[in-house]
Amino acid sequence: MKLLICPDSFKGTLSAQRVATTVWSAAQAVLPGVEGRLLPMSDGGEGSSECFAFWGATRRTLTVTGPDGVPLEAGYMLLPDGKTAYVESAEACGLEKTSRRDPSATTTFGVGELIRDAAAHAETILLGLGGSATNDMGLGMLAALGFTFYNKNGETYVPVGKTLSDLASFSGPSFPLPRVKALCDVTNPLYGPMGAAAIYGPQKGADPEMVEMLDQGLRHASGIIASDLAAAPGAGAAGGLGFAVKSVLGGELAGGFDLISQAVGLPEALAWADLVITGEGKLDHQSVMGKVIGGIAKQSRIKGVPLLVVCGMAEESDVIYDAGVHAVFPCTRYKPNALPSPEEAEKALYHTCENIFRMLRIQ
């Protein structure tokens, strides 16, 4: 048997790598001669860097400008293909990188510094969006990449949320721009009731008055840069970073899973496999809607490979099976409403997989 193991993390308990190695240990213990490929997956959010490291990527660390202007250490991953780098925007502008909750004053300049460094080592930059403390429409990032912004007095400056309304014009660098593809799983436009400020501003510290001010700034600045792209799905991701990538860098905004699965060779691995096992902590109907399990189900169905799902707990839903999942195996060896420790979760997962593989041995 050729077994492909490609789970997401069990959030709060087990990383995707630990899930994959636990499933593989159970397979080796029960199935003589089994061949395996471990491909822990991510949709571009939390844990993606660890997955890339498992796949053989190396981390490069440097000092960049943090969201509050204070220097900090951040890094990105260089993939084994030697052509691709993964930059997680939250490394340089994430909420956890500052105690300051003021999206009117924070910057994405450090994200641009990471991209600039990565572009010296890779042809394509995969930029993970999300978790930002910023609302500067990505103009800080662009400033670090060589763009110049001018206010209404003709003075150069690096815009932040509260100074977007001062933007009068901008110019680009004379050197080539990096090739950026943004991993984006939200569809919010740049401004308006569903925009970056209205939906994500409050969790970054914005009160209603600040939200209105930020929204007006996004509306004004986007009119100068590319008004026709402000409504593009994902333009409002990470405080407007999505807009900057699409409108100025000419980059693609795509689902994180789609870009990552291509980068790590999931289609080729599915063509090799006889059986696929994926999983996540809590399985429900949303799991097959643009997330890791849904993406794997779609691709495994195309390849004609059976797909099993292991999970901490599961919601009964025909939608899951209709999406291409053949069977679901919850690990229900702990209290249903209690989050298990990593050790408890790993033990439950191992025993569940052991029983799956014992069943597969029945002739």
Word description of this protein:
The chain has two domains: 2-41 and 265-360, Rossmann fold (3-Layer(aba) Sandwich); 48-257, Glycerate kinase, domain 2 (Alpha-Beta Complex). The protein has helices at residues 16-30, 48-54, 90-93, 109-119, 139-144, 196-200, 208-225, 241-247, 256-263, 266-272, 292-303, 318-322, 342-360; strands at 2-5, 35-38, 58-65, 71-78, 84-88, 124-128, 148-151, 156-157, 167-171, 179-183, 252-254, 275-283, 307-314, 327-330. The chain has 363 residues and is α/β, with parallel strands linked by helices. The strands form three sheets. A six-stranded mixed beta sheet has the order 3-4-5-6-10-11, sandwiched between helices. A five-stranded parallel beta sheet has the order 2-1-12-13-14, sandwiched between helices. A three-stranded antiparallel beta sheet has the order 8-7-9. Helix content is 34%, strand content 20%. It is elongated and about 80 Å long. It is built from 13 helices and 14 strands.
